[in-house]
Write a structure and sequence with these properties.
The structure holds two protein chains of two kinds. Chain A is 70% helix and 0% strand. Chain A has eleven helices and no strands. Classes of the chains: A mainly alpha, B mainly alpha. Chain B: It comes from Neoroseomonas alkaliterrae.
Chain lengths: 315, 97
C-alpha cells in the first residue's frame, strides 16, 4: 500500500519534472530526449492504472515512434538552417502563457476531482456485451466492434498522412525513393542491431498482434514494432525502399483501411449495418482485419519517418 | 523453500539496486563521456541482470522465466550497441581531450 503510493508519487513527480524539462530545454535535441523519457514514464503510469493496452501504445508510439519522428524533423530543420535556440518570449507574453496554462491546469484538475464516484462510463455495458464480440480483451472489443468506425478513421488518417508527407517532395524527386538513402554498413553496432533484432522483433510483433484478441496488445502496438524493425534495417542501408510510384508499396499502405471498409460495406449488405460482422464469424473477421491493418499501419509509420523523396544526404 | 526463494530475491535485487545507484553516481560524477557511458552500461548489464536473476524464483511459469531472460538479453544487446555508437559520436564531436 505504502510502497504503491511511493511509486505513484515518484512517477507523478518524475513526469512533472520531465515535462518541465521539455519546456525549459534550450536545445531542441535535449527537449526531444526528455520528451521520449517523459513518454516512457507515462507508460509506467498507465501500467500503475492497470491500462496495459494504453501503456503499450504510449511506449511504442507515444515515446518510441513519435521520438524518432521528432528527431528526424529536427535533423531536417537543422539542414534547412532554420533551427536556432529558442528565444525566450517577452515578459508580457510569458505572463499570459503562464496564466493560460494555469487556467487549463486548474480546469482539468477540477474536472478530474469533480468526477462522481464511480466515474460514469460504458465499461459495464462493454463487459456485459463482450461475449457477442467473441473476444476476451475488452479494449480490442471496443476498438474493433463497439467503436470500429473510430478505428477505421484512425487507420485512414495514416494513409492521408503518408500522402501529405509525400506531397512535400520537390518536383525533381517526385515519385522517387522515400527519404535519403543510408549508406550500407557491414560491421559495427548498427549492422549488428539490424541483423540481430528484426527476427526477434517480428516474432514479438506477431505475438502482440495475436494475443490482442484476449490480452493487452493489438495492431497499433505490433505495427509500431514492425515499423521500428524496418527502420532499423533501413538505417543500416541493408534494404532499398521501393519508390513512391511503386504500386505494391501503395497497395500495402492502402490495403488495411480498404479491407476494413469493404468488410464494413459487406456488413451493410448482409447484416444491415455498416461494420456489422457476420454472426459466428466475428472473431476470424476481426483477426483478418487486424493482421492486414497491422501491415498497412507498419508500412505507413515507417514511411512517415523516412519522409518525402529527397536527394539530401542522411545524417 | 519459499522463504529461501524470497530471501534470494531480496538479496539479488538489493545487489542490483546497488549497481544502479553506483551507475547513477558515475553518470553524475565521472569527468568525461566515455567513463560516464561505462558507468551507465555497467548499471544496465549487471544491475538489471541481478534484478532479473532475483525475480526468476518469483516468475511462476517457464514462459514468464523466458520472458524475463529475454528482457535482459534485449537490454544487453541494446546497450552494448548504443554504447559504442554514442562513444563514436562524442569522439567525432570532441576530438581527443
Amino acid at each position: 500500500m505504502i510502497a504503491g503510493l511511493a511509486v505513484d508519487v515518484l512517477l507523478a513527480a518524475g513526469s512533472l519534472g520531465l515535462a518541465l524539462g521539455v519546456i525549459r530545454a534550450r536545445r531542441v535535441f535535449t527537449a526531444i530526449a526528455l520528451f521520449i523519457a517523459h513518454g516512457l514514464l507515462l507508460a509506467l503510469a498507465w501500467v500503475r492504472l492497470d491500462a496495459l493496452d494504453v501503456a503499450l501504445t504510449e511506449a511504442a508510439i507515444g515515446a518510441g515512434l513519435s521520438g524518432v519522428l521528432l528527431l528526424a524533423a529536427r535533423h531536417r530543420l537543422a539542414r534547412g538552417g532554420s533551427e536556432r535556440t529558442t528565444e525566450a518570449p517577452g515578459r508580457v507574453a510569458t505572463i499570459f502563457i503562464g496564466l493560460g496554462c494555469a487556467c487549463i491546469t486548474v480546469a482539468l484538475g477540477y474536472a478530474v476531482l469533480a468526477l462522481p464516484k464511480p466515474a460514469p462510463g460504458l465499461a459495464a455495458e462493454v463487459a456485459a456485451n463482450l461475449a457477442a464480440t467473441e473476444l476476451g480483451n475488452p479494449v480490442t472489443g471496443v476498438l474493433m466492434v463497439f467503436r470500429g468506425l473510430d478505428t477505421l478513421l484512425e487507420a485512414a488518417v495514416l494513409v492521408l498522412a503518408v500522402i501529405g508527407v509525400w506531397s512535400l517532395a520537390p518536383d525533381a524527386t517526385w515519385r522517387g525513393t522515400p527519404g535519403a538513402p543510408w549508406p550500407a554498413v557491414t560491421d559495427g553496432p548498427r549492422a549488428l542491431l539490424a541483423r540481430l533484432l528484426p527476427p526477434i522483433g517480428i516474432v514479438v510483433a506477431v505475438h502482440i498482434l495475436w494475443v490482442g484478441a484476449d490480452a493487452p496488445g493489438g495492431k497499433f502496438q505490433a505495427a509500431a514494432i514492425l515499423a521500428a524493425m524496418g527502420l532499423l534495417v533501413w538505417f543500416a542501408g541493408l534494404v532499398r525502399v521501393p519508390p513512391t510510384a511503386s504500386w505494391p508499396l501503395r497497395a500495402t499502405i492502402a490495403a488495411g483501411p480498404a479491407l476494413f471498409m469493404a468488410i464494413g460495406l459487406a456488413g451493410l449488405a448482409v447484416e444491415g449495418a455498416f461494420l456489422a460482422y457476420p454472426e459466428g464469424l466475428v472473431k476470424p473477421t476481426i483477426l483478418i482485419v487486424e493482421f492486414v491493418l497491422a501491415a498497412s499501419v507498419a508500412a505507413a509509420l515507417a514511411l512517415l519517418v523516412m519522409g518525402a523523396p529527397s536527394r539530401d544526404a542522411p545524417p | 523453500m519459499s522463504l529461501l526463494a524470497d530471501a534470494f530475491t531480496i538479496l539479488a535485487i538489493l545487489a542490483g539496486i546497488g549497481f544502479f545507484a553506483a551507475g547513477t553516481a558515475g553518470l553524475l560524477r565521472f569527468p568525461d563521456t566515455a567513463s560516464r557511458l561505462h558507468a551507465l552500461t555497467k548499471a544496465d548489464h549487471l544491475g538489471l541482470g541481478l534484478v532479473v536473476i532475483g525475480l526468476l524464483p518469483q516468475a511462476g511459469s517457464l514462459a514468464n522465466t523466458l520472458r524475463l531472460l529475454a528482457v535482459w538479453a534485449l537490454v544487453l544487446v541494446a546497450s552494448a550497441a548504443a554504447g559504442p555508437m554514442l562513444a563514436t559520436l562524442t569522439r567525432r564531436a570532441e576530438p581527443e581531450t
